[in-house]
Amino acid sequence: MSTQSSTPQAAPSTRLGTMAATRLVAGREITTQVRSKSFVISTIITVVIIVGGIFAMSFFGGGDDDPSPVAAVEVPAEVVQEIEGSGFEVTEAGSMAEAEQLLRDGEVDAIVTLDPQSPVGVHLIGLDDLPMGAAQQLSVMPTMDVLEGDAADSMMRYFAAMGFGLVFMMVAMGSGVMILQNTIQEKQNRIVEILLSAIPARALLAGKILGNSILAIGQALIMGASAVLGLLISGQTEYLQMLSWPMLWFVLFFVPGFVLIASVFAASASLVSRQEDSGSVMTPAMMLVMAPYFVVLIFMNNDFAMLVTSYIPFTAPVTMSLRLFDGGVAWWEPLVSMGILVATTALVMAVAAKIYTRSLLQMGQRVKLSAALKSSD
């Protein structure tokens, strides 16, 4: 039986207004999470992963921009030009003794001399090991390119897709689970009855969503700043220019996108009164959170799938941002997608508020969704 009719109505003079109560609850949500070790540790770990991934991309994907220093001994000028064209910085030594000294001092990585018997016409000398890196650099390689797009951008596109998807999934999942667990705990410990005697149920819901949204946006900005810092330190400024516009749109999409997810988690949590029952209501919400990541992971190269999902509210923050990174998106497309997302978020918030206020004081067995929607306020 619903106990909604027994909602405390006493002491109206002690009840806060909706706006004041919303700010109070939001402040409590923020301070509680910021002080928790799990929140701090997870944020630090995520930042380390982002920065580490950027440096790994620079290390494994780059490295060709810095020429390798070598010392040339009695090598004709035209051969020196060919060596420099292979990505070497050539220092012409006057004698083998001078070249050996440069090698021992670490000024060069190898010594280059003429060798008519060599397939490439030169002989390489290392210090205490064969100069395999320099040899591979001198090896005859065919010219390579891609049919469509830029080969240098393909790896960055993959990292951008994974970055947008992971940031949205990790932040939304962490904050969403926190909303769900706190709400169930308040019901299980009957704290919610005390809270509702002082503040309206809608203010409690709004405060939870507002506080966690501020935290989530803060986390997303920290992660974005970490990515920018990593790109600047690693010298990949060309990628920073490519990402700046999509990252701005991602933040804009992230705000209503997270509010949408937070509303679903809060409404789902109000349906149960025990942590043991949280799995039944958490699973659908978690699937919505993980959907954007798996969409870009599976359909990244499917233009039609990316087009369609960029207009679906639960996936738009990630897929539209990736389409903006690819380019070729009409100016009105992100605006239309944003409009659909905001309208859907407003609708879901209204439904979530109805479910939340009608189910919050119902204890015991799980409240069915149909019953929560049909019951009277």
Automatic annotation (TrEMBL):
Annotated keywords: Cell membrane, Membrane, Transmembrane, Transmembrane helix
Subcellular location: Cell membrane
Membrane topology category: Multi-pass membrane protein
A GO CC term attached to the entry: plasma membrane
ABC-2 type transporter transmembrane domain ranges (all copies): 158-353
Transmembrane as UniProt keyword: yes
Keyword Cell membrane in record: yes
PANTHER family assigned: MEMBRANE COMPONENT OF ABC TRANSPORTER YHHJ-RELATED (PTHR30294), MULTIDRUG ABC TRANSPORTER PERMEASE YBHS-RELATED (PTHR30294:SF29)
Protein name as catalogued: ABC transporter permease
Organism listed in the record: Nesterenkonia alkaliphila
